[in-house]
Amino acid sequence: MRTSNRLSAKGAATLGPGKYADGAGLWLVKEETARGKWVLRVTVHGRRREMGLGAFPAVSLAEARKHADAARAKVRAGLDPIKERQRERREASRNLHLLKDVALDAFESRKAELKGDGKAGRWFSPLERHILPKLGKVPIADIDQVDIRDCLAPIWHAKAATAEKALGRLSICLKHAAALGLQVDLQAPEKARALLGRSRHRVENIPAMPWKDVPAFYASLSNGTVAHMALRLLILTGVRSSPLRFLHESQIDGDVWTIPAEAMKGRRDATADFRVPLVPEALAVIEAAQAHARDGFLFPSVRKGVISDATMARLMERREMDARPHGFRSSLRDWLAEAAGAPHEVAETMLGHVVGGSVERAYRHTDFLEQRRALLARWAQHVTGQSGRVVELVRA
């Protein structure tokens, strides 16, 4: 009888329950006529091992022989074919957990916490632009501090803020991978920071106009264009440019403008809707802007959507001014401290800042609306060149 290739494909299909040798350690174990399994018996390092090669008839006789030949070759090379197969499966499994896949999964799990469900892309963009092009196809378990250093070194000093964001997002991805049960080095980002060294980049604040110079600039915004009116309302209210640019008529109720929570800066759960008191000067600007409104938005762009932040900034650039639109929040804050003597919590609330710890906020049920209205009325008098005494505010 032949010592190998004893079975035939046709004969294997008709065999009943039992164990049948094909030779050279390959066996067909039949549980019943219609199905069974292939088993290879090998001796590795003096130990007898049995290695499954798949179910019959899903794995044909020819395939079983091919798998058996590959396993015997590993034995001849001094390797354990069972352990080698396990290692190969682990490698294949790791390739299903590339950084790009984990990053997308981490992003999806956090969308509900992000402003506008993360649609603006600000959370994911540092990863997408500076991490994933180089490390996206690397198994996350393989990423170490040297990989991270080499990835961020080109922007570590030139674009420090962006590099910090990218490093922070990567750290979140590693923690997400660990929660999924993957073996990762959670300390790799901090080790990379040590390798990168302290950034030479100096953080510069957005240039702000001194509050005493604001009236002259406000008076120059007089041609009734969308950009001029937007800047006027930005100055009068102290809000950020994004909610102002997306101001919709439905957000205004009488002399109160309510900015939805998701339109405020930061996480969706960081604050509730924010009420902005509208003094007569602000209401007059809004009434004038309604003549330009499109689809309910008071400050539309020329073609579609609303004006961009750059529209207002370019206006100031063309006048060769150092200050920028966002800087008017600083102008207002300085005026509140230097000229109005406003209580800290009221002044900070005017800028939409979260004041106090979570316990303090839980017990404070006021947003200082009327106190802020009085201060903004005084601010409007200042920016329009009117005079008046400083309003004394009582802490709520």
Short note summarizing the structure:
Pfam families: Arm-DNA-bind_3, Phage_int_M, Phage_integrase. The chain has 396 residues and is of the alpha+beta class.
Structure description:
The chain has 396 residues and is α+β, with helices and mostly antiparallel strands. The chain has 3 domains: 9-94, Double Stranded RNA Binding Domain, CATH 3.30.160; 98-196, DNA polymerase, domain 1, CATH 1.10.150; 211-383, hpI Integrase, Chain A. Helix content is 47%, strand content 11%. It is built from 18 helices and 7 strands. The strands form 2 sheets. Strands 1-2-3-4 form a 4-stranded antiparallel β-sheet, with helices on one face. A 3-stranded antiparallel β-sheet has the order 5-6-7. Helix 7 runs antiparallel to helix 8 (160-179), helix 7 (145-156) crosses helix 9 and helix 11 packs antiparallel against helix 13. The longest helix has 20 residues, at 160-179. The radius of gyration is 34 Å and the shape is elongated. It starts with 8 loop residues before the first helix and ends in a 13-residue tail after the last helix. Residues 204-376 form the Tyr recombinase domain. This is Site-specific integrase. Belongs to the 'phage' integrase family. InterPro entries: DNA_brk_join_enz, Integrase-like_cat_sf, Integrase_catalytic, Integrase_DNA-bd_sf, Integrase_DNA_bind_dom, Integrase_recombinase_N, Phage_int_M, Phage_Integrase. Keywords: DNA integration, DNA recombination, DNA-binding.
